[in-house]
Structure formats: structure tokens, C-alpha cells
Amino acid sequence: MKSMQKRFLLPFLFLLLIGLGFCGLILGSARFSFEEVRAALGSGGDPMIRLIVLQLRLPRVVGAMLAGCGLAVSGLLLQSATGNDLCSPNIIGVNSGAGLAVMVMLCLFPMAFAGLPLAAFAGALATTLLVLGISVSAGGHQSRSTVLLAGVAVSSLFSAGISFLSQLFPDALASYSAFSVGGFSGVKPADLTLPSLIILGGVAVAWILAPQLNLLCLGDEIAASLGVRVKALRLISLILASALCAAVVTYAGLLGFVGLIVPHLARRLVGHDLRILVPVSALTGANLVVLSDLAGRTLFSPAELPAGIFLAMLGAPFFLLILYQRRGRYA
Amino acid sequence: MLEARKVSLRLGAKSILRDVDFKAEPGQITVLLGRNGSGKTSLMRCLAQTQTRWSGEILIEGQPLRKLDAKTRAQRIALMPQVLPRPPITVRTLTAFGRQPYLGMSGRLSEADEQRVDSALKQAAIAGHAEDLVCHCSGGERQLAYFSLLLAQDTPVVLLDEPTASLDMEYRQVVYALLRQMKAAGKTVVLILHELADALELADQVCVMDRGEMVFTGTASAFLSSRIPQSIFGVCPKTVRDENGSEYILFAPLDQTK
């Protein structure tokens, strides 16, 4: 993409997000007019419409935007820190850690739904620390491949744990299924307070780290000789990526593919400079998730499909397309 | 000036470097020679502080290396490792990374930095490929692209690990010319080479390592008159003269000289 086009990409993505967000407020099982939504967002309008827009649809749209931002930047950080563009929160076990913690909660305290977000957050972060701990003791340092291999091993172990618990406690499986697909149905404003701080703060920190992260593509030795504290940067990036993902998991469940495909899409649009990739990925992820949520609740209305299903339906073929197009590119 | 005093390195149970003393002066090319596994690359990593588990003392311009923070160190020492990655970025972007140690948090280049990048690209004779992706460059072009990064980094000490390992004769001559330019600019140039004849032609100082120890330090002529070529490398130096009177040094394997 030419530099002139790149310059207009961020404003375009931002305006597109505003437009999709507005569509998310207008469309649904009950369809409102633009004027009705505008009035509801102000201080007037029909009280019922106001209630639906402000209490149901707005948190959902904002939640989807934040989830897209957080997951996309989480994936970008993981891919940059590990030097592996197939890395994503799922791969290093963040999702399975959150999933196992939720499953344990559902088995031990079947009615404690309010504790699930906290369990998911704790599970995701604890898994990251476990993966880092294993990679340090196995490889002597947080090298690229040891983190990935430790993540794959822990992820497989935790997935087996989830399957084991679902056999022992079949009643917990129904609640876990909704969590594992991921979606924004029933997101309340209060659910977003802490996650929004973590996600917006995390994206800002990722943008600050971008110039240093750019240098990791030169390998650890050259990056270090250019003044990067490679191990510290990699550790901070991995923890930040996990925190971003965990913050999303607390209210949206296990949304897949965003962290994997959005960084690829953004690279195709603007290249490999993380200073521009971070904001472009954040906005692209937000647009993609808002669009998936919108599609999920309008295409088969009044039935509603979780955004996670649409993301998987969009994401899997797109990812395969990328793999085919990459054949032999860096050979 | 770069100086190592009694530097030792152990990795696990293995002793990699043992009490190595080393000194490289500004405006000189110091060539590190030795067989594979003798500890040359490990010493270079210690000097660049990309290997941190060494003991002893390393001084750069009289200051202890360990006391320098990462950014200050990057303004003093640049390293070109043997294996050069092929990132999907342009040669210009790669060169601009050389200015990173001098930039603020935003990573934005000033006009002076941009000029420095342009001049590094020209000096490394790679300006014509500035917009090519590094991953699409040939081996020689990639080497020159990384040289332009070194030139943009503009440090008083430059460390190069086998910079001509995969290059043909033409690119080797370009690289040697760049090394001589760095020397003329007053930089302390330390490089690892395996081609003995080229090393002796370039070097102001030759250092030879064997099994983690520094076994020889001296000039090229002192190296030739010592037993080191025979005992360490298993070769015998021979001087040949062409019809114009120019002298060349050839190294014949010992078993062929018997």
C-alpha cells in the first residue's frame, strides 16, 4: 500500500468503526431508526428504546470493539515477541488456561457465575506465568521456540483437563460451551470497567514498545547490540499480551482467530512497522469483531449466533488463504 | 579502544573461554583467527555483551562494559553476527534501525538521522536497493545492507563475525574496502575471518585463539614467522612473487609440503 493510502487508512478504519458501531445500535431483533438511536444516545427519545440502546446494545458494541482491539494487539505482541507469525493467544495456552479455570469454577461452584470472569482472568495470567516458568527452566531463557513449545504442551494438558472435567461433571458442560464459543450477549456496562482500562492501557503500552519490538525481527543478537534489552522486552510483551487476552476473556469468553488473523491482515495493509501496525491492528480487530457480532444477531434474526462462531467461519478460510499465498515467499 | 582482561566463560560444565586477554586499538583492524570451536565467536559475544555470563573485565574507552546501560552500549559497540536474518523489511528500514540507539521513545527519525541513513546506504554501495525487501536480496546484497546498518549506527567499535563467509570474490573485495574505510575513519574494527591470506592482508593485529585461550597476539609478519600456522592451522605459509615483483602469501597444507 502506498504511503498516501497508508496515511488515510487509520481515519478510514476509525470512521468505519463508528459506522459499524452505529449499525450495531440500530440493528437487532428490534430495528430502530437513526434518529431514534441518536435521540437515545442524547438525553431524549422513547424510554424503552433508550433502555435497549444504552443498557443492551451500547455495552455490547463497546465490548465488541474493546475485544477486537485487545485480541488483535495481543496476537500482534505474541507474534512479534516470539518471531512466529502463527502464534496467537490460543497457541501459548492463554485460552485453555482461562477455560480450565472457568471449568473448575463451574464444577466446584455451579451457581457462582459472578466469579467466572475473575477465574478466567486468573487462569489466563497464571497459565502465562507457568509457560514462561517452564520455558525459563527448560531453555535457560525466554527463547522463541521454548515459549511456543511450552505453550503448546500446557495448552494440550489444560484442554485434556477440560475434557476430563466435562466427563465427570456433565452439568457444567452447558455453561462452559457458551463461554468457550465466545460472544457479547448479556454484556453489562459494569462488566467492561476493568477490562476497558486494561485493554486501552495495554494497547497504549504496546504502541510505546513498538520501536523496540520492531528490532526483534533482526534476531536477538543484533537487537541487543542496538540497545534492546531483549529478554525483558520479550517477557513484558508476553505478559502484556496475556493480560489483554485475559481482560477480553472475562466478559466475552474464548473468541478465537482474532489474535491470529488480524495482525496478518494489518501487515498486508501497512507492512511490518509496529508503530503503525499496533493502531491499525487495534482498529481492524475492533471492526472485525463488531461486524461479526452484528452479523451474528441480524442474519438469522430473531435467532442469534455468538460472534465467536462467525469469527471462526471468517477466520479459518482467511487464514488458509494466507497460508497458500505465503507458499515459498520467504524460502 | 576495546580491552578484555582475564575474561572467562563457562556454559554449564564446559569452559568456553579461559583468562583471555585482548586489546584492540582505534584506527586498526584486529583479526581473530582460530579453528572452529576455539572460542572466537564466544569472545565476540562477550565483547558485545550479547553473552553476559562472562567473568573478568571488559573495558571500552576505559569504562567497564557492564556499567554501561543498553542504549549507551549500543552507541559505542556495533555487532554483525555471522548469521544474518532475512526480515521482510526494506533495506532502508533496516539501515534506519541503526539510528535506534540515538532516538527518543517515539522512534521517529530526525532530518539529521535521515541524512545519516542516506549516507550509510551510499557508503555501503546498496543505495540502489534501498526499497528492496531484505528477504528478497541476494547473499551479497544482504551483507551490504547489514553493513549500511552498522554505518548508520556509527559506533567507535565495530565487531564482525565472519562478514565474508558466504560471499563471492567480488563482494568480498567490496566488504574489505568497507572495512578499510571504517579503519580510516578511526574506528576500532574487530573481525573473525577464516581466510588466512585475506586476514593477514587486512590485519594490523592478528589474534589467534585455541581451545578457549588466546595463544598469539601480534602483527601479520610476526604471525608468519611463528609456528602458529603449522601448529594451529596445519598449514605452511609460502611467499610467491609474480612477474611484476608483487608478493603473495599462500598456505599449503602441511602434508603436501613434506
UniProtKB/TrEMBL annotation, chain A:
The chain crosses the membrane at residues 58-78, 90-113, 119-140, 147-166, 197-215, 235-262, 307-324. It comes from the Bacteria. SUPFAM superfamilies: ABC transporter involved in vitamin B12 uptake, BtuC (SSF81345). It is a multi-pass membrane protein. Pfam families: FecCD. One of its GO terms (molecular function) is transmembrane transporter activity. It is found in: Cell membrane. Keywords: Cell membrane, Membrane, Transmembrane, Transmembrane helix, Transport. One of its GO terms (cellular component) is plasma membrane. Belongs to the binding-protein-dependent transport system permease family. FecCD subfamily. This is Iron chelate uptake ABC transporter family permease subunit.
